[in-house]
Amino acid sequence: MLDSKTPEGPLADKWTKYKDHIQLVNPANKRSIDVIIVGTGLAGSSAAASLAEMGYNVKAFCFQDSPRRAHSIAAQGGINAAKNYQNDGDSVHRLFYDTIKGGDYRSREANVHRLAEVSTNIIDQCVAQGVPFAREYGGLLDNRSFGGVQVSRTFYAKGQTGQQLLLGAYSALSRQISKGKVTMYTRHEMMDVVVVDGKCRGIIAKNLVSGELERHSAHAVVLATGGYGNVFYLSTNAMGSNVSAAWKAHKKGAHMANPCFTQIHPTCIPVSGEHQSKLTLMSESLRNDGRIWVPAKKEDAEAIRKGAKKASDISEADRDYYLERRYPAFGNLVPRDVASRAAKERCDAGFGVNETGEAVFLDYASAIERYGNTEANIRGLKSQSQAEITALGKEMVKAKYGNLFDMYKQIAADDPYEMPMKIYPAVHYTMGGLWVDYNLMTAVPGLYAAGEANFSDHGANRLGASALMQGLADGYFVLPYTIGDYLSKDIRTGKISPDSPEFKTAEAEVQSRMDRLINNNGTKPVDYFHRRLGRIMWDECGMSRNEEGLKRAIQAIRSLREEFWKDVRVPGAINSFNPELDKAGRVADFLEQAELMCLDALERRESCGGHFREEYQTAEGEALRDDDHFAFVSAWEFTGDPGEAKLIKEDLVFENIELKQRSYK
Amino acid sequence: MNLTLKVWRQNGPDDKGHMETHPIEGVSPDMSFLEMIDMLNDQIIRAGGDPIAFDHDCREGICGMCSMFINGEAHGPGRGVTTCQLHMRSFKDGDTIAIEPWRASAFPVIKDLTVDRSAFDRIIQAGGYVSVNTSGNTIDANAILVPKVQADEAFSSATCIGCGACVASCKNASAMLFVSAKVSQFALLPQGQPERESRVLRMVEQMDKEGFGNCTNTGACEVECPKGIDLSNIARMNRDFLKSSAKSEN
Ligand SMILES: Cc1cc2nc3c(=O)[nH]c(=O)nc-3n(C[C@H](O)[C@H](O)[C@H](O)COP(=O)(O)OP(=O)(O)OC[C@H]3O[C@@H](n4cnc5c(N)ncnc54)[C@H](O)[C@@H]3O)c2cc1C
Ligand code: SF4
Ligand code: FES
Asked: Which residues pair with A617 in a beta bridge?
């Protein structure tokens, strides 16, 4: 049984009380304490900047050429906060409740409540940094709605919210770099964590330009290395997003929690061919105004697939707005897992609308008309023609979603202002990750995990606009307190030497694995194996899973792993700039972690959130949870073989929320 | 489509470098430019060669990592797109395509098409921020009203992705567009006012130190900028710079 170290007391007081009672480190002592932060996305940059401001010596690492390029930069739609600026009944409690329910009751109450509490500070902080959020004409901040909720609590900056928030955190980080409080290591990859006397005391990093290995010591290490959606090869993640840092930590004693909880996002641009290297998200914010449908008649769907009919040829009566039909209360704004499964269900039944049969329509025609009418009223224009209203409507839609529409046009070569977009679900986010306690510390003392890399707040399904919130909450407002409490016991330790046997052994192990990869002399490039792994995972461990398929996948992954080590070809040399070698190391880790994901999916004999086991569904095809047997976090401990990990449970206790079947009807 | 690619190869900053020719067959018009390079690298690796090194990550036009000079244009033909968003349907069967790295002395080549753009980070470190510490007690986000037009304009400037195409397109390798975008974002917002003068002076000073060239108003940067950052940013920065330097001389 795992101890989450959740503080005692009433839910709403836990965090305040905790902060009041932690040990502090005085400013002089902070100056002699080193902290390593791996990753400079929202979680890493915000943590690095905040800890440096407090006085710690920070070393930060990222594999890109600049901290500003972390994957967080790509987040589009927005960030949640319980500000209740719209006066629509929002509150900390409601955000807490929505998140627990959205996560299908598989997250820890105390963590989620803390997240909701600090959410409002995030917006204040970002505005103070000069983040240019969208505003209303009166100068106040604007909000939009996201899936799974009935209030408008999402703050945004057009379709580039992640970019603006990350640039805010990056500027705070840059300020500390200029002061010498943060030493920034770009184009550096963490290759292993180093544990000395049971505590994490540093990392082995590789300078990706020179190819040299480096030892970096510290009193504590934070992994803010993002999610592992790329185990599916195709996902909306950036090409470099990886599991390696987390996986290395797992092999050194940190537990992997709920690795099978993957979010498949309903609105992405469909796969166009074999050459595809990644998938592009069309932000969830589009479901605010867009309506999702497929033809109600199979013959219409067939005609569309063959190119004999267009979307506009299908009359209103012959359209099936299946989300509005199945879930009248939430309509197009049901949570992601629900929307994705519903799209798959329609396409599997033969109603898909592109050549591959794997696409549905996302239609803006009625939104364009609605916005056009409103705007005409605002501007006091009477007796407008239909064409003029449509033109006004397009203008308004452009102002709100312009960059997303442009992106769609660029990729799909189709004009979404004229024709509905075609979309299909794609892998997007991983709720699973390193197990952490209330302090965000992993099972290895002194090793922390923040942002998407940990499992903490989203249960079995994350609500839209909540990842940015969590990343910044962890980095700006949680870690600075919890790490301080831990470090307060380390003020007399003095500098940690990077020359201890533990560091040397770790470095030698990293070196020997690189040697093995480079000298393998196989015949096939890394991508060949990665693509095949992705196919296995998408088919057997994707939107729906079953026992037989998962067992098949485990066998297939094991043999693919063997084949990889026999036949992969990694060109070039070790001591040089060699992106293929870096990629090979990451894919080798995916090939191990994939097996654990399937094992986790196999052992969780229930359906919840994004984890849909075909054997466990209601008569209406909804996920059927089993709270009596599965209301726990599955934390896996490494025992030497990825598929032989040991399951340790953290029971989830719900004291403030009543467990119910999730309904969005 | 079948194409002929002429690609710049350079093994490190001190290597002289040369163009290398690669025929490539069976390119689909739906491929992105980088997917076409993936295909080429696959060929090269299978044949036992050294693949072409290039920077990329998000592949959706936002991280600013991709950076190819294609047929004499930063990010290739087409306006408002990065290399990763360029699709092969922009080319014809039989075309010859020349692919080079960003060229500027402030952006030394690391390998092939990969360059070192850390100078941009150092410019931001010189002053591209608002000096505010993290705290749970900053004022409420709605306490200061910002007119929508102003907020929108600040946002437009803030959308710069730091790719460096402006520098690569400029015959003087000037970084004015990049620097002015950040200066403008803060100049347009109330939060940026207290440090407005020192910021512009410090950022421009760092820019000069990094070895970027002077701006002679050719406007090539604006044309090639994938994010539509326009010359009005440079004008705003010049005004702020003049005002601030006059004051600091007093
Ligand atoms: C297209 C897209 C749109 C999204 N839109 C939204 C949205 O609108 N709202 C929302 O809330 N969420 C959104 N998300 C999710 C959200 O963006 C991410 O979950 C979040 O940004 C993750 O932040 P992070 O700081 O945890 O990690 P990341 O931003 O992924 O950063 C990871 C960092 O770790 C570094 N790193 C990784 N491995 C190593 C290693 N081995 N060594 C050294 N460094 C390493 C990287 O260099 C990088 O700096 C979106 C996601 C995608 C893919
Ligand atoms: S100003 Fe434009 S071209 Fe220059 S770095 Fe920014 S986005 Fe790139
Ligand atoms: S790869 Fe990110 S902008 Fe091109």
From this structure: A623
Is A51 inside any structural domain? no
Q: Is A341 within the bounds of a domain?
A: yes
Ligand nearest to the CA of A188: 1
Locate A599 and state its tokens. Answer: 């094992």
User: Cα A65–A67–A70 angle (5° rounding)?
Assistant: 95
Tell me, yes or no, whether A518 and A416 share the same domain.
Answer: no
Radius of gyration (Cα) for chain B, nearest Å? Answer: 20
Q: Does A423 share its domain with A519?
A: no
Domain CATH for A587 = 1.20.58.100
Query: Which amino acid residue places its CA nearest to atom 5 of ligand 1?
Result: A75
Residue pair A582/A63 in contact by the 8 Å Cβ criterion: yes
A551-564, pLDDT tens digit by residue? 999 999 999 999 99
pLDDT in tens, B229-242: 999 999 999 999 99
Does A500 contact chain B (CB < 8 Å)? no
Q: Which fold has domain B3-111?
A: Ubiquitin-like (UB roll) (3.10.20)
Ligand 1 atom closest to residue A64's alpha carbon, by position in its atom list: 47
- In single-letter form, the type of residue at position A576 comes to S
Q: Is residue A324 part of a domain?
A: yes
Residues A645 and A560 in one domain: yes
- CATH code of A310's domain: 3.90.700.10
Round to whole Å and give the CA distance between A36 and A52. Answer: 11
Model pTM score: 0.97
Distance to chain B for A210, nearest Cα, Å: 10
Would A272 be classed as within a structural domain? yes
Q: Which two tokens stand for residue A404?
A: 């997303």
CA–CA distance, A129 with B149 (Å, rounded to integer): 19
Q: Which fold has domain B117-249?
A: Fumarate Reductase Iron-sulfur Protein; Chain B, domain 2 (1.10.1060)
Is the pLDDT reported for residue A208 higher than 70?
A: yes
The CA angle A160-A165-A167, to the nearest 5 degrees, is 95
CA angle at residue A74 from A467 to A231, to 5 degrees? 75
Q: Tell me the pLDDT band of A255, cut-offs 50, 70 and 90.
A: very high
Q: What is the pLDDT of residue A202?
A: 98
A109-129 and A161-178 helices, crossing angle to 10°:
70
| Residue A79 CB neighbours (<10 A) | 31
Ligand 1 centroid–CA A71 distance in Å is: 4
Residues A291-301 have a mean pLDDT of 97
- Rounded to two decimals, the ipTM of the complex is 0.98
Nearest CA to ligand 2 atom 7: B160
Domain boundaries, chain B: 3-111, 117-249
- Domain residues for the domain of A556 are 502-629+638-651
Share of chain A above pLDDT 90, in %: 92
> Whole-angstrom Cα distance, residue A324 to residue A333?
9
**Full DSSP string of A32-87:** T-EEEEE--SHHHHHHHHHHHHHT-EEEEE-SSSSGGGSGGGG--S-EE----TT-
Active site residue A492: no
User: What six digits make up the tokens of A580?
Assistant: 């293929």
8 A C-beta contact, residue A434 and residue A440: no
Q: What pLDDT, in 10s, does the model give residues B49-69?
A: 999 999 999 999 999 999 999
Looking at the structure of chain A, the number of domains it has is 2
Task: Mark yes or no for CB contact B162/A68 under 8 Å.
Answer: yes
> pLDDT tens digits, chain B, 250 residues: what are they?
999 999 999 999 999 999 999 999 999 999 999 999 999 999 999 999 999 999 999 999 999 999 999 999 999 998 999 999 999 999 999 999 999 999 999 999 999 999 999 999 999 999 999 999 998 889 999 999 999 999 999 999 999 999 999 999 999 999 999 999 999 999 999 999 999 999 999 999 999 999 999 999 999 999 999 999 999 999 999 999 999 999 887 6
Cβ proximity of A243 and A585 under 8 Å: no
Classify strands B69-70 and B96-100 as parallel, antiparallel or unpaired.
Answer: antiparallel
